Amino acid sequence: MVDLQSPLGVTFIPGDHGNAAGGVGITLHERTNISLIQVTAWNNTIPTVLTAIGSATGVIVQNKPGHGRVAGEKSVFGFAPGRFMVTGATPDLEQRLRAAISTDLGTIVALTHGRTVIRISGSRVEWVLAKLFALDFSEHAFPVGTGRATLHHDIHTLIQRIDENSFDLYVFRSFARSFWLTLRHAAEEVGYRVE
């Protein structure tokens, strides 16, 4: 497999930044070495496709808008009717999904080379994300595992809550550097660490 270069380039500067004197409010981290697969079920095959995703990944998801689950480095979430983002740290994820989901059930598109995943975590994560997106990031409105599709200006972003204080943000690679700089700027007032 070809080594995937980070689109963040020289803007990825490890260390503490912003107003970090009083402590670091969030941590930013680019997730690498994961497979990203979009699965789209035909309208009448959604339950069958969800069962197939579960058998291929071990992650069972219900057919509810935005519903998802996280199991270690694996996750699944719905971001539109019949559309699911499936991630995992195994390079054979696409092959396992293709073996489980035939073309009469839906489609599979590998997005590993087309998306960048940024994990943002920390005690001030909801505050920072609310600056960029018109969403309620409280755990009541956005429970662990669930996902949303939204925009920051014209940058399409898929967001999944990973745990109480962590979210994964999926953006197109061509917008990743610009989005990264915007995210860093939004985090300056609470102090942030790049790892």
In quaternary terms, these chains amount to: single chain
Enumerate the strands of the largest sheet in spatial order, edge to edge or round the barrel. Answer: 1-12-2-8-11-10-9
β-strand number = 12
Give the proportion of residues in helices.
Answer: 10-25%
Q: List segments where confidence is low: pLDDT < 50 over at least 5 consecutive residues.
A: none
Largest sheet: 7 strands, mixed
The average pLDDT score comes to 94
SSE blueprint:
Blueprint: E1 15-17, E2 26-31, E3 35-41, H1 46-57, E4 68-71, E5 74-80, E6 83-88, H2 93-100, E7 106-110, E8 115-121, H3 125-132, E9 147-152, E10 155-163, E11 166-172, H4 173-187, E12 192-194
Report on this model:
This protein has 195 residues and is of the alpha+beta class. 22% of the residues lie in helices and 36% in strands. The protein has 4 helices and 12 strands. It has a 7-stranded mixed beta sheet, with helices on one face. Strands 4-5-6-3-7 form a 5-stranded antiparallel beta sheet, covered by helices on one side. Helix 1 crosses helix 2. The chain is globular, with a radius of gyration of 17 Å. It starts with 14 loop residues before the first strand and ends with a strand.
